[in-house]
Amino acid sequence: MPAAAPRSGDAIFASVEHVNAELFTLTYGAIVRQLLTDLEEVDEVNKQLDQMGYNIGIRLIDEFLAKANVSRCVDFKETAETIAKVGFKMFLGVTASVTNWDADGTCCSIVLEDNPLVDFVELPDTCQGLYYCNVLSGVIRGALEMVSVHED
Amino acid sequence: MAAAAICSLFIINKSGGLIYYKDYGSAGRMDTNDSLRVASLWHSMHAISQQLSPTVGCSGIELLEADSFDLHCFQSLTGTKFFVVCEPGMPHMDALLKVIYELYTDYVLKNPFYEMEMPIRCELFDVNLSQAVQKDRGAFLGR
């Protein structure tokens, strides 16, 4: 059976139900505030956000694979590009860019120009060191682990 | 009475454990222990077939054709396997498997109370699965 062509992030994003962006931003903000109240330590909150993201990622990956029709990525560069262009577009509606590749191609940065999670957010001085969007790195970590890519 | 489109559906987690078994009225209805055994047998055969394959990068058995049935198998990149046993020569089973995979990602994985790799006990999944299979059966009978 011929494999179906991979769908673009735009096409998939357009085909799923959308939620109000402000509701999404507010919900995430409420979660972070509650965690800060409950846990008090910024490091603990970072860890919890990562864990929450991980739990989301392990479930999200199958959704991504089912909708995007991508085949296994050949190398890490392709993986990073797929996450940035298809993954983020499909779930957050924004495209990320991949930069800062190191010499052996094992380390990079994924940069979100327009991140819906941080709309209207300003971090106060008391929260230095808080990785506000740590849930996103957890999601990526969880998703990649399910397709056998272990990373930090 | 017209034959059902498919005879049975199995879903296996990445470790080879059976997490879902549905029989659609075939003569070969199995009890729980038998279905568990059959699922782990298939998991092992699928893994062995990847090793035996002469082509590099083989992803395992996709179709098994026998005299009285066909078995179509789909493995996601996360290692979860979906396979259906159906009448010989049934068309479009791959498409049905893809639909079932999407139903799994929606009604099973998005249920926060579903524990990963555990047996599926999600009513919404059952309901939507029956609808999808009925639709497929209707399409088949209509041909």
TrEMBL record, chain A:
InterPro entries: Bet3 (IPR016721), NO_sig/Golgi_transp_ligand-bd (IPR024096), TRAPP_component (IPR007194). Transmembrane segments: none annotated. Its main location: endoplasmic reticulum. It comes from the Eukaryota. It is found in: Endoplasmic reticulum; Golgi apparatus, cis-Golgi network. Keywords: Endoplasmic reticulum, ER-Golgi transport, Golgi apparatus, Transport. Coiled coil: none annotated. One of its GO terms (cellular component) is endoplasmic reticulum. SUPFAM superfamilies: Ligand-binding domain in the NO signalling and Golgi transport. GO terms for biological process: Golgi vesicle transport; macroautophagy. Belongs to the TRAPP small subunits family. BET3 subfamily. Homodimer. May play a role in vesicular transport from endoplasmic reticulum to Golgi. This is Trafficking protein particle complex subunit. It comes from Punica granatum.
Automatic annotation (TrEMBL), chain B:
Keywords: Endoplasmic reticulum, ER-Golgi transport, Golgi apparatus, Transport. GO terms for cellular component: endoplasmic reticulum; Golgi apparatus; TRAPP complex. GO terms for biological process: endoplasmic reticulum to Golgi vesicle-mediated transport. It is found in: Endoplasmic reticulum; Golgi apparatus, cis-Golgi network; Golgi apparatus. InterPro entries: Longin-like_dom_sf, TRAPPC. Its main location: endoplasmic reticulum. The keyword Transport applies. The keyword Kinase does not apply. Part of the multisubunit transport protein particle (TRAPP) complex. Belongs to the TRAPP small subunits family. TRAPPC4 subfamily. This is Trafficking protein particle complex subunit.
